[in-house]
Amino acid sequence: MTKVTMTVNGKTVSGEVEGRTLLSGFLREGLGLTGTHIGCDTSQCGACVVHVDGKAVKSCTMFALDAAGSTVKTIEGMANADGSLSVIQQSFQDHHGLQCGFCTPGMVMSSAALLAENPKPTEAEVRHYLEGNICRCTGYHNIVKAVLAASGQDVPAVAAE
C-alpha cells in the first residue's frame, strides 16, 4: 500500500492505495464520492469523467498514484459555492439533458471541459466533443441543447442525426 495525496474538490485528501487502484475506485471507495460513475471499466462510456489539473480524464484509465499531487474535480465539486447548481448542471435540468442519470456526471464534466476550451461551440463541435460519452436514454439532442444553452447561446431546434 502506498499513501497518495491530492486535492479533490478544493480539499486536500490522502489515502492508502494499491498500485493498481484506479482513480475512479479511489474517488468512489476511498473518498465516498460516488457521483463519479463506473460504467464500463474500459474507457468506452465516459461515465467516469473527472477533471485532473483542469483536463477532462476518464478516471477508469488513470491510476490513483498517477494523480498524486494533482487537483481533481468531480461532479460533487461542480456546484456553486452556495450549493446551487452550476450553469451547466442547471442547463442539463432545464433542457432535459438527462433521463436515467447514469451518464450525467460524465456528460456534465465533459461539457464543462469543452466550454472551458471553447466557450461558444457550434452544435457540431458539441457533438464531436461528446463522442467519447455514451448515453443510452436521451438520444443526445437535449444534451446538445443543454451545452449550447450553458454557453449562453440561443438554443436552436437541434437536428436529428
TrEMBL record:
Q: Which Gene3D superfamilies match?
A: 3.10.20.30, [2Fe-2S]-binding domain (1.10.150.120)
- InterPro entries in the record: 2Fe-2S-bd (IPR002888), 2Fe-2S-bd_dom_sf (IPR036884), 2Fe-2S_ferredoxin-like_sf (IPR036010), 2Fe-2S_ferredoxin-type (IPR001041), Beta-grasp_dom_sf (IPR012675), Diverse_Oxidoreductases (IPR051452)
Keyword Iron-sulfur present in the record's keywords: the answer is yes
* Positions of the 2Fe-2S ferredoxin-type domain: 2-78
What PROSITE patterns does this protein's entry cite?
Answer: 2FE2S_FER_2
Pfam families linked to this entry: Fer2 (PF00111), Fer2_2 (PF01799)
Q: Which CDD domains match?
A: fer2 (cd00207)
Top-rank taxon:
Bacteria
Which one of the record's GO molecular function terms can you name?
A: oxidoreductase activity
Q: Which UniProt keywords apply?
A: 2Fe-2S, Iron, Iron-sulfur, Metal-binding, Oxidoreductase
> What protein am I looking at?
Carbon monoxide dehydrogenase
The source organism is Paragemmobacter aquarius
